[in-house]
Batch of 4 targets.
Target 1
Amino acid sequence: MTAQLSHIDEDGNARMVDVGHKAQTQRVAIAETRVVLSRETFDLLAANALPKGDALTTAKIAGILAAKRTFELIPMCHPLPLSYVDVRFTPVEETATIVIEAEARTAGQTGVEMEAFTAAQVAALTVYDMCKAVQKDILITGCRLLHKSGGKSGTYDVR
Amino acid sequence: MTAQLSHIDEDGNARMVDVGHKAQTQRVAIAETRVVLSRETFDLLAANALPKGDALTTAKIAGILAAKRTFELIPMCHPLPLSYVDVRFTPVEETATIVIEAEARTAGQTGVEMEAFTAAQVAALTVYDMCKAVQKDILITGCRLLHKSGGKSGTYDVR
Amino acid sequence: MTAQLSHIDEDGNARMVDVGHKAQTQRVAIAETRVVLSRETFDLLAANALPKGDALTTAKIAGILAAKRTFELIPMCHPLPLSYVDVRFTPVEETATIVIEAEARTAGQTGVEMEAFTAAQVAALTVYDMCKAVQKDILITGCRLLHKSGGKSGTYDVR
Amino acid sequence: MTAQLSHIDEDGNARMVDVGHKAQTQRVAIAETRVVLSRETFDLLAANALPKGDALTTAKIAGILAAKRTFELIPMCHPLPLSYVDVRFTPVEETATIVIEAEARTAGQTGVEMEAFTAAQVAALTVYDMCKAVQKDILITGCRLLHKSGGKSGTYDVR
Amino acid sequence: MTAQLSHIDEDGNARMVDVGHKAQTQRVAIAETRVVLSRETFDLLAANALPKGDALTTAKIAGILAAKRTFELIPMCHPLPLSYVDVRFTPVEETATIVIEAEARTAGQTGVEMEAFTAAQVAALTVYDMCKAVQKDILITGCRLLHKSGGKSGTYDVR
Amino acid sequence: MTAQLSHIDEDGNARMVDVGHKAQTQRVAIAETRVVLSRETFDLLAANALPKGDALTTAKIAGILAAKRTFELIPMCHPLPLSYVDVRFTPVEETATIVIEAEARTAGQTGVEMEAFTAAQVAALTVYDMCKAVQKDILITGCRLLHKSGGKSGTYDVR
């Protein structure tokens, strides 16, 4: 951790890292999150019969749009020229769960984890919003990094 | 669920609910989420010794700002004149977890759950961002509605 | 036009109208626009076989989101607490045209034409974006106000 | 169209194209749109005597600002480092029409048509807003691509 | 100061004030700032001969747009339904200074000082931007509240 | 000034400079501004005893976030991939003044003065907002460029 500690602002204030000296490389990050529904809500969503309509398409678009605005939401994130964002959904029948996987890519000087996370979590919030008229105790859970490649710290993959 | 079904767009398309006929009442919502850290990261955060500095203050401000922009992020949400937003943190030593509680209030025609959720999840993402240089396998989990009051559906409280 | 002329800034500079003295009434506006495609593009869109996928759903969500941000885009528009926005599509087989109708509602001190127009035109731009890989000479045309009600100037309707 | 079809998401969902492998070249796009006014409105605009003031200057600035935010408005657009945006107006006396031409330039991996279109249409919406106190049946029409150069598909020009 | 002290968060963290209990009254605020130019720059601006063109019109529109987005920029500000924003310029020949006066109005539960200040300072920054190609040592100075009325604390006026 | 004059739009309209032909170099800019408080307000801020809490941390985050959105606020600014933004505060006891220094860096085709200025002035506005419950006659003053390097015009430094 010596490298990181050398970065510490002496008084503990929040700070943006200067990435100007970092190499510009291809960066990929994939994040996952899960929306746990009741059986009834899951069935309505699967049948596209929710009062507010098509939850997953709405969530996909919301997630992609949010990824592009990560730098506005997360104070110490850098603006990045994203070359690709995707949000994918896997409805898991047995557990009435929507598994959301979001991917971001760029050629840049810093990683795109936060863009992938923002896409995943805003997609999850949108699923919640589309379902909340029929269920209040929805759970958004298990949000974690699945994959990251392209930076100095090498490839991270837990899939 | 008859009430909701009467809202369904015949072809399942996403749609915004017209709230123009709803009563303008005092609305409160509280959402919770959790950031599970490693012991080492938790200790660095607690000692305000993270490379990027003060994680919780940065996360609080990010969460409050994000709540005010919920309508830009969640497609079918209405713009609301929020009268109050707060984001509170409880570091839980035993489990190396930061419990985040976000609250939103308005006098309006629709609930503020999404604003509370957005504040909580963007605060959690900011904690992740402030800690990610020292730990990659951070988990954001257990995001759920704790309290909601003020609408036609009455008070919901699981605390 | 005496009423309007009394508002004129003596030097012709752009100005925002003060709506503080206007009555708060229910306001509705509906705007229309048209995207004229080639036969081939129209058929791909109708078959949901465009390279970038589902054009109309994406356009609907983009239009609704844009309506909520009209005050950020149009300099002299007031921020309004929209109670409802909708974007509807009618594909017209004979002319290979997508007719877009956007509606906005609020209870406020000024009309919602610009919100309806912004929804319609951003939806049209999104249809263009979703189709542009297969056709470059798409036309967006015939954008006009269909209906406006709720203000001092009475109801306007050309449908 | 084989190239495009190979991009198709198997289930027709909306998707962002990955531009990470595309060459970074100089890109230019020019779009046109038209605002058709009544004789009376046209004369007021030409005399800079509209109630809300200088319509064209306001529209120019609104169009330039909007071009820079295209990636926030059009879901599948990529954020681009625009090097130039311009919006030009040609008032056509005979037809009481304002012809708007918008141009965008970048050195990037994808075209700038959507930025040019967004500038043109937001400028047109702003002209509408500045004139709507004196005329309700304004038409925004004839929006099309005039020129595009710099990408793999070669130069397109209809001027 | 007893009233304010009762609001203090026990640990000194930043917080948003809950304005939900405040009376909804007509609120006005006027702020002033000054851009001090060199004689040469002032003359170019006055002759509308700056390389980037009409500085004051651009600054006026930028200031009005920024006022509407104050709640996005200033973390603890509330979103407000502004009914009026204006930015006025007085070029002072003797001192080569542009005096900027910005006014904001709303009917709301909290004051509009920050909206007036944001309009004034973003207008000043825009004047700087329009002039910076010809002068680097421009000064933005003397930014202060001129007038405030409508809240519990009564009218404040230093004009 | 011949170079600039050659840029002038013949009719004095505002215009964005085309930076597409400029060299991509490392750019740094530092701007300064000052918030002059009363003795009482300064002491409350220094003791972190203001009603709205920690003014400087809130201002630092607001300034950094605002720098990243400069291109949305200042009409003729280009979007830039900022590699670093910082906002630093020096409380000056004798004059009850907070000196704010903001720095921006990028590798790009145009300077980052406006980003540094926007960070400094939004930080100052945030300090004002955090203090305004206890003092109304706060002054924001002395905003100027301290340093600029990396462009064709060479290094400028007044420190």
Note: Residues 39 and 96 of chain E are 6 Å apart (CA to CA).
Target 2
Amino acid sequence: MAEYRVPLKDMNFLLHDVFNVGSLWQNLPNLSEHVDVETADAILQECSKIAEQVIAPISRQGDEIGVSFDNGKVTTAPGYKEAFKTYAEGGWTALGGDPNYGGMGMPKMITAFHEEMLCSADISFSLYPGLTAGAALSVAKHGNEELKQRYLTRMYAGDWAASMCLTEAHAGTDLGMIRTKAEPQDDGSYLVTGNKIFITGGEHDLTENILHLVLAKLPDAPAGPRGISLFLVPKHQVNDDGSLGEFNNVSCGSIEHKMGIHASATCVINFDGAKGFLVGELNKGLACMFTMMNFERVGVGIQGLGAAERSYQNALEYAKDRIQSRSLSGVKSPDKAADSIMVHGDVRRMLLDMKAKNEGSRALSAYIAMQLDIATFGEGEAQTKADQLVALMTPIAKAFFTDLGFESAVAGQQVFGGHGYIREWGQEQLVRDTRIAQIYEGTNGIQAMDLLARKIAGSKGAMLKVFTEEVKQYIAQTSSDEMQEFIVPLTEALNDLENITEQVLVKAQTNVEELGCAANDYLHLFGYTAMAYVWAKMAQVALAKQPSDDDFYQSKVLTARYYFARLLPRRHSLIATINAGPEPMFAIDEALF
Amino acid sequence: MAEYRVPLKDMNFLLHDVFNVGSLWQNLPNLSEHVDVETADAILQECSKIAEQVIAPISRQGDEIGVSFDNGKVTTAPGYKEAFKTYAEGGWTALGGDPNYGGMGMPKMITAFHEEMLCSADISFSLYPGLTAGAALSVAKHGNEELKQRYLTRMYAGDWAASMCLTEAHAGTDLGMIRTKAEPQDDGSYLVTGNKIFITGGEHDLTENILHLVLAKLPDAPAGPRGISLFLVPKHQVNDDGSLGEFNNVSCGSIEHKMGIHASATCVINFDGAKGFLVGELNKGLACMFTMMNFERVGVGIQGLGAAERSYQNALEYAKDRIQSRSLSGVKSPDKAADSIMVHGDVRRMLLDMKAKNEGSRALSAYIAMQLDIATFGEGEAQTKADQLVALMTPIAKAFFTDLGFESAVAGQQVFGGHGYIREWGQEQLVRDTRIAQIYEGTNGIQAMDLLARKIAGSKGAMLKVFTEEVKQYIAQTSSDEMQEFIVPLTEALNDLENITEQVLVKAQTNVEELGCAANDYLHLFGYTAMAYVWAKMAQVALAKQPSDDDFYQSKVLTARYYFARLLPRRHSLIATINAGPEPMFAIDEALF
């Protein structure tokens, strides 16, 4: 397996050349007091060392040995405890945190790249700090001062980790059905009782305490999602001086045996009258949890990208080394017994598919991170617009990046031929590890419904318009001849997206199933169109650097061309299947399946 | 996991209603002396019992425990030895064999369904008899009388298994590079020396002897593929009376640890001056091996279908049982806390994608099997035509069925949500097991080149014409109004396939890379078009049965509509990417990746 190398140059290209964070951050005063471009560069540089040298090396044994469970105790795989200690001591657990409580206040544009590095190095490892950072975000936004002083500071310090307790055996997507109960106590706390499943990092030995963010219902709560509240339930109670108090009746019943992410503990967590503290308002727990969930959804999207980048790097190294058969157009390496497989069109197809998807996903993820930063640190109209774009793009990041990421993991494995199926090469681990990203944190089908039904249809198309207006403005401003090869197909794709959205929304007025039947294809259509937008932006910057001695910019322009020639055309089939409507799906009675 | 149920009704529908084997077989005298429709039905019925009751139950522990290796000895997982014994005693190892040597002489239309059943039950198990049947085919066709009497009879009897020894560490696809040597001996035998990797069933404890079909080169052989000969090398020598003689210097060096098919032994096999016997003529070994390889390629295609059928059955059962959220168009099960997930458009999309692909793959596989039977048992022009169709369709069966099969395994896992990622449900095993089918027996990229470069371009389009003429004739004969919903898009797809073939062949005259760059998409385009042809045939038969009390026929018509509405349109994007040509792929220098 190739040694992982963080694509720092591509990250810097996006930050500085494409999205020009120097001037962006200066216009966001609450942000610019904490970060400048030099700090950002230094942070990414340091983070790349941790990812390459500390985390990537433990991934294979994490997969082979995995976490173990013995009588309620979870032991992480060899090396994880040490790696986490190094990571926490480096201050990385504070990276995106609220500076008032010990966080470093870095923008999402930095933390998103940091997340990508962790995921490329080892998705399993990334989940422990990833869940903690998401929980911290929710506590920082919705918790009271006492919760923040007592718990948030310790999460940022890397002392304590956190988990996200939503799912129950009978209630996965449908959270309205949960049964976990929270009974109010005289001291203002609650006693939480219930069983949660699929709890990532629900129990482990990396930190001395684990803070569970738990969805539960008061005994007299309204039925359904409107009766759900959010509680912070520590594994060990915490004394007033911050030291650990008594055990809080939170136990791990078992861990799951899974297809992949073997080094991530996926736990059954039992709350047996555990003391918990309300986060946010009663019965508004879902909204508070969504602060964490939306963070994690973008993070899971980045998992897809992380695995895909690793897959590309591995497959590229293998393809360059592996000699097998001759080029169709004549011998390329007469001194060798065969040419490298890089000469074969179909191998190039697989590698360039990966390259174009990865660089496109990274750019789109940086774009979404930028909107998140404007939404968090900006004000006025710009802030409102960014808020809408974040809402629109979150399901796309989650589902589109993970669908493409899985494709890239599989494609990289295919480049390896038979060796891709053998465990020792590590390539098949990427396929197994990244597969979960399409499922957890709301399946990709749920993301598609969130996009089309909740956001696009829910806003009667207004939320789409925020995006299309921005792209149209970009198109109008980009009139140079050399950019027309990108602008013309981008315009076509955008028009088609607008038209089909309108058609779907009209048809949904008479048959609402239209939305469910179109959702998956619609999300992909949107994804390819949005990715065309950021690819055009990247091509524009790279073309402006020509002529250049730096291969990077030439490669960027050529990869942009590849994207428009070979990936954007996937939209044609998606439009055809969206147009097919609900009839072919609902004409078939359940008994006829 | 749902209990596996063989889709016998669909198989019988294809045999009797769609392909009318009763009259087909009567026109093939060499075949009809061995089989009639009653025998065929009885065989499939019996075989379904073995698959459901004997083989399917061992699959999970085969995955969990796998094969083990100790000092050259391979032990299969618990239950495999007993299952193989039952299988062999039932006579199934003789099913497709030459009746002159103890085979049952059943047509491929029967044995292909038998293979599907085995693969749905357990791909790992299916590989042991599958490799043996392929080796037997090569020996039956190319071996001399002595080899047939001594070895073929014992393979049919299920006493001895066989393996296929092609790959060496440095030579996967590029067989011209192999180094294994065969030195002629005075008694007419050869001493074979060399190391082979990735040898499925190269060593195991299911049979007392294993016959290796080994590609090797004589010391003075011409370089490259034209110097390759094929040898039968038994693990134990065989005495004149058929009893086992001394050990033949064939040893297993290790087994691979793989992503899936854990119960299949993938071996490093070392030949250390092992006594071997020439199969066919000297230096024509590749052609003799291709008899086996083409058999296995169709068989591997069927592995994709087998896993996909299992995935569909599991996911369907889960979807019917799992209640979660309400239908978009209003509550469907007011007596339950939520509706079953069958009400959601996106779940139906995943299930119907699987259903339409599986029934389409089964029909296309039956069509190919029919051509194989005509090629084997027919004569004259019909035989010549069938030969061409088999050559054309073999790479499509291998690559298209396995690509669709993997998609269906993944889709079924997605229907399960988080449970699909947990090992105990068995669904993720299907994804891991079926992934190899896209890789081994010639990667799917190699299959695509075989189709487009070797067969279509190699015949200057003549081989394509054999297929298109048949479909055109069918279209011309199918003029009823009710069939036009299928005939019109089939005609369009066929015309597009013809046009783009012509364009690619013309462009390839000036730039041969055109072929390599188009190959993968072309194979899929061909696959979807060929599948539309068999779906039209199935729809026609099912429509003719209307009105009917039998849900089966109604389901068939509706699934055909689904195929034309939602799967055939994938061709639009494929045409666009084929049209993109080599420029986007080859403009990028290796250094710019």
Note: The two ends of chain A are 44 Å apart (CA to CA).
Target 3
Amino acid sequence: MVDVGGKEVNEREAVAYGEVKCGRAYLDAVKEGSVKKGHVVEVARLAGMMGAKETGRLVPLCHVLPLDCVEVTIEILDDRFSITAKAKACAKTGVEMEAMTAVMIAGLTIYDMGKAIDREMVIGEVKLLEKRGGKSGEYLREDK
Amino acid sequence: MVDVGGKEVNEREAVAYGEVKCGRAYLDAVKEGSVKKGHVVEVARLAGMMGAKETGRLVPLCHVLPLDCVEVTIEILDDRFSITAKAKACAKTGVEMEAMTAVMIAGLTIYDMGKAIDREMVIGEVKLLEKRGGKSGEYLREDK
Amino acid sequence: MVDVGGKEVNEREAVAYGEVKCGRAYLDAVKEGSVKKGHVVEVARLAGMMGAKETGRLVPLCHVLPLDCVEVTIEILDDRFSITAKAKACAKTGVEMEAMTAVMIAGLTIYDMGKAIDREMVIGEVKLLEKRGGKSGEYLREDK
Amino acid sequence: MVDVGGKEVNEREAVAYGEVKCGRAYLDAVKEGSVKKGHVVEVARLAGMMGAKETGRLVPLCHVLPLDCVEVTIEILDDRFSITAKAKACAKTGVEMEAMTAVMIAGLTIYDMGKAIDREMVIGEVKLLEKRGGKSGEYLREDK
Amino acid sequence: MVDVGGKEVNEREAVAYGEVKCGRAYLDAVKEGSVKKGHVVEVARLAGMMGAKETGRLVPLCHVLPLDCVEVTIEILDDRFSITAKAKACAKTGVEMEAMTAVMIAGLTIYDMGKAIDREMVIGEVKLLEKRGGKSGEYLREDK
Amino acid sequence: MVDVGGKEVNEREAVAYGEVKCGRAYLDAVKEGSVKKGHVVEVARLAGMMGAKETGRLVPLCHVLPLDCVEVTIEILDDRFSITAKAKACAKTGVEMEAMTAVMIAGLTIYDMGKAIDREMVIGEVKLLEKRGGKSGEYLREDK
């Protein structure tokens, strides 16, 4: 665990992205609301948000940060779900891992709720899109 | 949460896969053991294994299963880390989510430990490779 | 913690009930889907279900039980939300506490999501309705 | 999760109340110290306090707050236990949910420890009594 | 995590021991019930029991076991607290770690509640006393 | 839970120590890297660090503190492992318990990974070595 004792508290923000690639059967079922396990988008969104709060306990070297906000947005595209998560905190270190974890747990939840329909799903493209705050300043991914 | 009350307990096994694509700088640092945050492969392996035990609490509709074994293997390839996780349990439902979660948390940990070196990393190709046990029988992914 | 080592494993089921009494403003907002914090019924249902899985860690003398199923149903009545939770497990001891905890956490979530609209809400009538399995046999509350 | 990033940190306090209605048998057993499962009031008090620390993980849209203090007081009345919980924090958002959760988990624990004696218990009247700090200022429930 | 998939489920029991060495001031305060933080023995007993349920999450390579019983006994001796914990489960692997963890968390709690009175306390002699069940059979420590 | 609402936030640091006494067989196996369960020192170090983050949830009356840093150092001596843990936070109360918990969980992990080789191990001498910050000022143990 990096010692952040000497670092300043300032506003941190991070946006992460990921996707769940899958067949039409599952995507259609979600759109029609016919997935037996429930409202996939709503459940995954919530799981992602709750997952972000667990980041510091799941990722060994992460500090536990006091999140000001986590937002998870899920879109249904033609051949995949896209997941975007934003995390914010006033902290001594960045919230990238919180945003990444939110995306991951949302992705896992989408997978779990649809695996009876489509076992071939692939979770991927999980990456950091943006980051603000802290000494290293702003970061904007170029190949978004 | 699907009611598994009427299902039989039998041996379940699942293997999941995923990868962290990254540049040479981080891979070389890991091979040389020069990453400041510690032994990346060992920490990620452990985080994946511990993460698998949290599956039922992270993924809302998952049952909490009594895992008999979780194994996480991480390889350093030319342009990525490959992560394979196997989960086993005697249970009424499958352990795919446990294997998937192990891969995910291992991937997040690799990302976390190297993000000071390489911010462009992408976690992806997270998918189920194999599954055994239960009424649906054996599954072997074809496009491994 | 009562020693259940000598007890038989058998099918257990419990149904608990509770309600959140509140004004029309919040109930109407929920029906119209205009609550800023999201889909109250869906979020509370999920929180209840996930909360049930934490029972053994929250209630000191409870055993941790392998839940086969948790179902939470929330209805919007004229002056209150009614919450019903069913828990099932094959276990050496009953699942009353899991059903009760599900109701409680669902109730807390309903409260949390509406407290900006209505601070006067009261969570109450949390009680066991039914119980099956185990040496003490079936229980059906009379004053449901 | 409401974005509290722009809000000021200030002292927050909340008091919640609840009760467990039950028959004389259990109340007498508690007073005599003859409940097999242990010291009901002490265990429930502790469970409530520890439960308050879990609030942000149990209630999906709650922020995790750095509690300065949680106090749980339990009284044995003629036909019920009364539970009062006070929570305090220096935070950007209120601690109502922490106080409410403390009451709830204390109530569940009282129920759990006595359910072998009295299955008819009802947990109820869980509500916010007081709240201080934050933009909305002081709140004092009138129908205490 | 050792693969216990092929092992038989049978009754397991383990007893662990530990102590907190301290000065008279704290021991006397506990006996008189004058410790500000509360009933030390009762709180520590409970913390130990609850801690045992967390073993599989705290100790990386431990399996999560379905505990049938945890008992923690604390005695006040002339110059120390002695802590004994017994854990039981029907499982494929032993419950030594659960008993050891119970002792440890009880010890930490005793330390925490008295550290304002006595900073010199030492927690020690934490060891396994007995173990039953499983292929390796019975174990009884000789130098108890 | 002591009310720390009125206390100042300042830099806190604590160092705790502990050891696992054991036979040569286990120590040698660790040095040779032949312990089946993995890299004992690395796993224990990580478990201690992660355990420190759980302190506020394990020790009932502890506040949950925002740790700036946890460092666990493990040395292999002739007849024992020595464990030193340092914790740091900017907080209203000290981090002794975090340092102590880190030592304890590291000790439990060392025990767990070697118990198939040596059942006689004893975890002991767990104590506070140093403490800085807060009204009570600096503390340095004399009989280190």
Note: The mean pLDDT of chain E is 95.
Target 4
Amino acid sequence: MQIAILLYDRFTALDAVGPYDVLNNLPGGEVRFVSEQTGPVRNESGNLALVADATLEEVTSPDIVLVPGGPGEADQLTDGPLHEWLRSVDRTSSWTTSVCTGSLILAAAGLLTGRRATSHWLAVDQLRKWDVTPVRERVVVDGKYVTAAGVSSGIDMALTLAGKITGDRVAQSIQLKIEYDPQPPYAAGSADKAPGDIVAELRARSRFILQGPNA
Amino acid sequence: MQIAILLYDRFTALDAVGPYDVLNNLPGGEVRFVSEQTGPVRNESGNLALVADATLEEVTSPDIVLVPGGPGEADQLTDGPLHEWLRSVDRTSSWTTSVCTGSLILAAAGLLTGRRATSHWLAVDQLRKWDVTPVRERVVVDGKYVTAAGVSSGIDMALTLAGKITGDRVAQSIQLKIEYDPQPPYAAGSADKAPGDIVAELRARSRFILQGPNA
């Protein structure tokens, strides 16, 4: 079972690595980090680089495709090699998935048209641009398309997916191995729960948060 | 505020990247991935590489030091350049921290002697070897030493640390930005909660899980 995780400039690292450390534990799972070119791909801050070990051309029929989000998504909303690759691998994938604003890239590539999907809470409404129904849930499954909300939600998405692929028992075993028994020190992880003034402040900085310092 | 995240061969990626995407959002935070040599450092599976942008010699006085865990910790329990660096930066650090079996490295370097600390649930008892009191909690704070349990617990640790450094408000804002409102599909993330047969199975494979395929 080949799992392709797409990297592009200014992606968000946890979007990719949270699901990675779940899906890489699937029995028979073989993860490849893929990008237009092999070599280091920098995140939105430039102080982290993950290495792409394969080019788009080298990964032609992954079983699972995962698109992380991040400020760089803004550069990936127009047609080009990345969209072509996504449309191509989606023809044979068992699961096409995203974390955070990665769903905007899938939507822009035309893969979510008419479907339900989610994204980072500050970005989810943008899905309407591509005739996608925005859903404010942490993990949204519509057929083989599985989308997650912001950044850290990719872990929940990947465990959900692991359960669908291998059954509850293996997924639970993975959850125990990565000791995913979350105990956040605050109840501030969603716009419904966080203090109103903090929600308002992030909304006001929405463009900066979603697209980065150069937006 | 400089944050040094240590990389070594066969580390576990989420141990490093979970806290990274919290601490990198601290106002004035400047993260450096540091290792004995610059360049790609591979995780325990070999199919993921994070780039170290600085050598140990280049990072001499970080405010926060973070040591991830992973099967490669078994190679980092004897004295050498890495222990020397840890002891050196610990002299001036404000916080010395670890995720998962990273605490075994801190303990072996002599930095946790007489203190309370935690680690991955399968490894926590090993801390006794170095006169450290093992504590089965998700995040343990003992003075400036902050240790986290297995893999995913680094996110909780980093948010706890963010709160201590910058106050609750900034930490809550970071939590909302990364949408950390965990909703695991199972209640299987700790040995107390997971089905007993799964706990027993992982205990039986403990050496393999902690030290990797070559153990």
Note: Chain A has two domains: 2-182, 185-214.
